[in-house]
């Protein structure tokens, strides 16, 4: 059952239609990644979902409560992590978490602060001012602060933007651990690898519309089937094309043929068997699998 239900959401800024009847459903305990280029409408949609911005049509419900009609009640159900880290750099990491714990009326704010610092790998730096933290440490602290109160739903707006690859990988591990604990996570991202690594479901947002949705594996199929790339000696290429004619090979260069693999293992074995029977040996062969980059290019053409 969908814990987050977004139906036909629209938004206009002056005469510009920013969101066009966006519909998304997110199941409990899953990660949904909203993928799109800058200006696609990701942050606008996230602000509408979290009650920070009103829509011009449609409806959003979280745990069967209307965001529009029960904004305050709904906002107590989730935590929202914005693009810019909202940490106080003068305070230490521990003091930041302690302050949030007290503001949220935690019964044991000190214990909560120390537990989150340990969970996010910041315990050794708890007494350092946040100004001395790296970008990745600040982002982890910001995410830890959003978990004070133990919200079951997390909204993360481009959580790894601006981080170096090492810090990005560390934060991915944190997000995956949160999912393993049963959290429902809705994140926006520009990073195809991030969506592929983390998401159960991906939605592609382009010009305010969801143009495709599915699991990472399903999305990759939009760019075509896997293919087998075969390299032959220049003197063998014409014979290879003839021998493999039943497999509809495409010639990519003077020495390379490509064959689409509808049934990957069976088709590959059939091709290699046919070549062997005709005493043809490829110099090299490789299975090529579509990536989300291929899907993104295919979906955003024009």
SSE layout:
Blueprint: E1 2-13, E2 16-27, E3 31-35, H1 42-49, E4 57-62, E5 65-66, H2 71-75, E6 78-81, H3 93-103, H4 109-119, H5 135-146, E7 153-157, H6 165-180, E8 184-189, H7 192-198, E9 201-206, E10 209-214, H8 216-221, E11 227-231, H9 237-243, E12 250-251, E13 256-260, H10 264-277, E14 284-288, H11 292-300
Parallel strand pairs: 3-8, 3-9, 6-7, 7-8
Antiparallel strand pairs: 1-2, 1-4, 4-5, 9-10, 11-13, 11-14, 12-13
Helix pairs in contact: 3-4, 5-6
Summarize the structure.
This protein has 302 residues and is of the alpha/beta class. The chain has helices spanning 42-49, 71-75, 93-103, 109-119, 135-146, 165-180, 192-198, 216-221, 237-243, 264-277, 292-300; strands at 2-13, 16-27, 31-35, 57-62, 65-66, 78-81, 153-157, 184-189, 201-206, 209-214, 227-231, 250-251, 256-260, 284-288. The protein is built from eleven helices and 14 strands.
Describe this entry's structure for a reader.
The chain has 302 residues and is of the alpha/beta class. The protein folds into two domains: 2-221, P-loop containing nucleotide triphosphate hydrolases (Rossmann fold, 3-Layer(aba) Sandwich), CATH 3.40.50; 227-289, Alpha-Beta Plaits, CATH 3.30.70. It has helices spanning 42-49, 71-75, 93-103, 109-119, 135-146, 165-180, 192-198, 216-221, 237-243, 264-277, 292-300, and strands at residues 2-13, 16-27, 31-35, 57-62, 65-66, 78-81, 153-157, 184-189, 201-206, 209-214, 227-231, 250-251, 256-260, 284-288. A six-stranded mixed β-sheet has the order 6-7-8-3-9-10, with helices on both faces. A four-stranded antiparallel β-sheet has the order 2-1-4-5. Strands 12-13-11-14 form a four-stranded antiparallel β-sheet, covered by helices on one side. Helix 3 (93-103) packs across helix 4 (109-119) and helix 5 (135-146) runs parallel beside helix 6. The longest helix is centred in the middle third of the chain and has 16 residues, at 165-180. The model has no long low-confidence stretch (mean pLDDT 89).
